[in-house]
């Protein structure tokens, strides 16, 4: 099967680029002397998980319990569910753990900490630490940190933090500074808890930008990163990876032509309406158009409008092309996590246009 034979829109994954991205992150973490707990929230695929875990000593990170159930069904036991737990979801976690899973949960809520500790066999729990993003977690110097630990009792296994605000960093030096603040917050919280007599075995941190550009991760026991596997235009724009590291693209067909424009059948549902590159040095609209082989032969051809099922590509005046209706091309996404979420499978290639595999992915919650 060739790319030209596929229905559109379809999600294309280049296995060679994926493997290179995994090796690059592994090398970065080897330099930092910290293991990886790869985050599967983007990939949601057992085939990708097996590649990401190769050579890694630990488990994975998930963002939904649907992912946890899926990966456990494929033999992965050790998982960190990296979203604040609630009572109903705690029931699902405990049921999975009773069946042999080893799912770790997180919380920053004292009442939820008491609920966790009240279980007959509570899951290992990490206290979520706010290292500057102000999305979730408690500050490392807060009184609530020690209250949470006291309520969790023996179920307390450590702390975790996430420098999501690293996405606002511009340049390697700024991201390295955010990475140090992330490390400092996690290790400071761990030290306070240890000083109070608690056993802290896990100090979990990470985002793809900070994992790539941190200068020191002393005291951190694991790094969680995920988008690095697939890459996207935004991550390239903030220097998490190079422009040649985008492994996931959307195959689309030309369905109409206008002066200086192409209409394609990949719109907001296939590409997402993420506009993250608007905040970088190069605004790619809703994605960058590539030829069917994934090369940048179309120049600066950008998806300027994204309707539900229609995309409008503004052609590069310096690269005149005349593609007929039915011609296929590919779109590099702004935010690969959002783009991949619309699709239920990957059509896998390996640097060419031959489809070498089809990998299914889990969606939902």
* Share in helix: 25-40%
Structural class: alpha/beta
pLDDT < 50 stretches: none
Look up the CATH topology of the largest domain: TIM Barrel
CATH architecture of the largest domain: Alpha-Beta Barrel
What's the name of the CATH homologous superfamily of the largest domain?
Alanine racemase
Radius of gyration: 22 Å
Quote the average pLDDT.
96
Question: How much of the polypeptide forms β-strand, as a percent range?
Answer: 15-25%
Discrete helix count: 11
Number of domains: 2
Instruction: Outline the biggest β-sheet.
Output: 9 strands, mixed
**N-end to C-end Cα span:** 32 Å
| SSE topology string | EHHEHEHEHEHEHEHEHEEHEEEEHEE
